[in-house]
Design goal:
alpha/beta, eight-stranded parallel barrel, 8 strands, globular
Amino acid sequence: MKKLPKIALGAWSWGTGMAGGDQVFGNNLGEKDLKPIFDVAMKHGLNLWDTATVYGMGSSEDILGSFVKGVKRDEVIISTKFTPQIAEMYDNSMEKMADASMKRLGIDDIDIYWIHNPADVEQWTPQLAPLVKNGKVKAVGVSNHNLTELKRANEILSGLGCKIEAVQNHFSLLNRSSETSGILDYCKENDIIFFAYMVLEQGALSGKYDTSHPFPEGSDRARSYNPILPQLEELTKLMQEIGEANGISVAQVATAWAINKGTLPIIGVTKVHHVEDAVKAAGMVLTNDEISRLESVADKANVSTIREWEKKME
């Protein structure tokens, strides 16, 4: 696998359509809005981009692909996903879905290819191996798998001459189940990179939203997070306090925490300052005391941010 930066940049909220930025985030972003973000990120060495076929049913990949064609292939790292729930659209063939992703992205191979969720570990996991062997995929990972499913997937691939090289799960101050379940330890023991998604809880831990400034109605994240904003105020206040002491923002505290936990966070980027936040957070080291205080107050909030497509890892 190519050398990875400390942070990946997520393109879930790019484009529109089913499971796209307009429906999930309340955004409506196209190439004109997003090209400056891509350019600034690449300039700062943040060249790892995470997307999926299901994000806007290809529209996220289309947009990212329009930018990727303007840079040398070895200068960018592309992470995209196979989603079992839409496999019928591709004749139940993982390879056909991967081929369609490569066509949209304008690339001949995928740096990291993921199984998006464990709909059927026994059925889908073996289909990763041929993609590695024929060179279409450089490294494989699994997302939203619990420890038992992760171990089984790795066992299946080991028997086929491959291995899981990356895990991608929801992991934040409000959802540490991948840590308490032993997944983080398993990853460390087996040289697997842990990608943490929703580190900012889709903005709920960015410092931008509170009871006085809720998410605009009409999106999935508004429905999910607005009801729990009152419980998050003590946590975001502490994050602001720690941020001010370190010269960083609330969002940067959330990201720095994830990096300090040994994970590689995926930060959704829809504005240039999101990239600048990521750059600054990548260099921040929090103290053990700061990490302990953040986790204690987060646990006290006692909220669940498990979404409809996922489950607890315990």
